[in-house]
Amino acid sequence: MNGKSSIGIMLIAIGGLAVLHLLGIKFSFIIGLLLPFILIGLGVLSLSYKRKVLGSILIGIGAIMLLGKLSVIFIWILAIGLVAGGVALIKNNSRQF
To answer: RNA-binding: present as a keyword of the record (predicted)?
Structure first.
């Protein structure tokens, strides 16, 4: 499959999801998760066609959107790390007495 066919398939899929949304079938959660990956994929595809500016812009937008989705995971990891660090400090201080 060449690049134009893959872009065409992606556009058909996005348009089909938009039509389903207009009909009342909500796929907002799925679209919200897939859209950053679709933009990154289109950016990589654009880079392969020597369109550096467009590819870089699409990858950048997709990466920013993806970081927004993954921020919850980063917050959980930070919270667990802080709790584990606090427990470790308490255990180390209780052994000194």
So the answer is: no
